[in-house]
Amino acid sequence: MGTLYGIGVGPGDPGYVTVRGRQILEDVDVVFYPASKNKPRALSAVLPYIGDKETIALDFPMTGPSDKALETKWKENAGLIKEVLKDRDAAFVVLGDPYLYSTYSYVVEILENFGIGVVTVPGISSVGAIASLLDIPLAQGEEKLVIFPMTGDENELKKVLLENENVVILKVSAGPEILYKVLKDNKAAFDFYMVSDVTAEAQNVSKNPEDLLKKVPYMSTVVLKKKK
Ligand SMILES: C[S@@+](CC[C@H](N)C(=O)[O-])C[C@H]1O[C@@H](n2cnc3c(N)ncnc32)[C@H](O)[C@@H]1O
After folding, report:
1. What's the whole-number mean pLDDT along residues 134-143?
2. Which of 165, 172, 164 is nearest to 130 (CA)?
3. Average pLDDT for the chain
4. What are phi and psi of 138, to 5 degrees?
5. What is the biggest distance separating any 2 CA atoms in the chain, rounded to whole angstroms?
6. Is the pLDDT reported for residue 63 higher than 60?
7. Cα-to-centroid distance, 221 and ligand 1 (Å)
């Protein structure tokens, strides 16, 4: 039986793939990647390192994790991976870090139920890449740092802003207008940074919360730092 390597490839630029990830990509026979309506970003990030290896797209419908159709799809994908692992090693490439809001973690659970273990290689998360781009610390000393998905509840977000000095908001495009309203009610107690497509050609930085009312790309993250 072959091995599945889950590889975090970083935020998108091939230069952010780790040395460890690159070594494994050079050694495996097959590369799985999450399919996408647009350019598959995780695959694009590793193209310089995989030559003409076989690549297989795994389709993950964009619905909530409790959706039955999604669960069926995860099982189908895990079955496909199991078939390949019968006689080959494979990598599953995912954007950022594999264990931060990634479909990879669900596939791992199913593979483990099949009795198949995995080897996971961490990647540079979009959160770290954004802090470096902005040259701002995510947290210092005794400060707290919370990562909040914008798919969460508005009241929960208000509570998080009351109790923490640093808040990173992922999946901003799921509710930019809600975030705008909460920030407005908060009377600008936080410095606001929104970064879209960090390290990619389309990279954009905004320090103006009003931009939440324009079109917000899916790959957008907001960093909020309590004013000192
Ligand atoms: C499903 S989560 C995946 C996070 C990923 N595993 C990571 O470690 O960065 C997707 C969210 O991560 C953030 N994200 C991922 N890549 C990004 C990028 N290149 N630029 C800005 N935000 C990004 C966005 O908030 C996006 O909605």
Report:
1. 97
2. 172
3. 93
4. -70, -35
5. 59
6. no
7. 7
Q: Would you call 51 exposed, middle or buried from its count of C-beta atoms within 10 A (0-12, 13-18, 19+)?
A: exposed
pLDDT of 37 higher than 70: yes
The model carries a pTM of: 0.93
Residue whose entry in the numeric block shows the structure tokens 């930019």: 176
Cα–Cα distance measured from residue 92 to residue 28, given in angstroms and rounded to the nearest whole number: 10
Residue 74 has pLDDT above 90, yes or no: no
Residue 69 belongs to what H/E stretch?
helix 68-85
Report the nearest atom of ligand 1 relative to the CA of 98.
6
Q: Which residue has the tokens 């410095």?
A: 191
Residue 217 Cα to ligand 1 midpoint, Å, equals: 11
Total domain count for the chain? Answer: 2
pLDDT band at 51; cut points 50, 70, 90: very high
Last-in-domain residue among 76, 99, 121: 121
Q: What are phi and psi of 68, to 5 degrees?
A: -65, -40
CATH code, domain with 63: 3.40.1010.10
Compute the chain's Rg from CA coordinates: 19
72 has a pLDDT exceeding 60:
yes
The residue among 99, 121, 143 that closes a domain is: 121
| Ligand 1 shell residues, CB under 6 Å | 11-12, 95-97, 100-102, 125-126, 170-172, 195-198, 200, 218-221
DSSP for 164-196, written as a single string? -SEEEEESGGGSHHHHHHHHHHTTT-EEEEEEE
Ligand 1 atom at minimal distance to the Cα of residue 200: 19
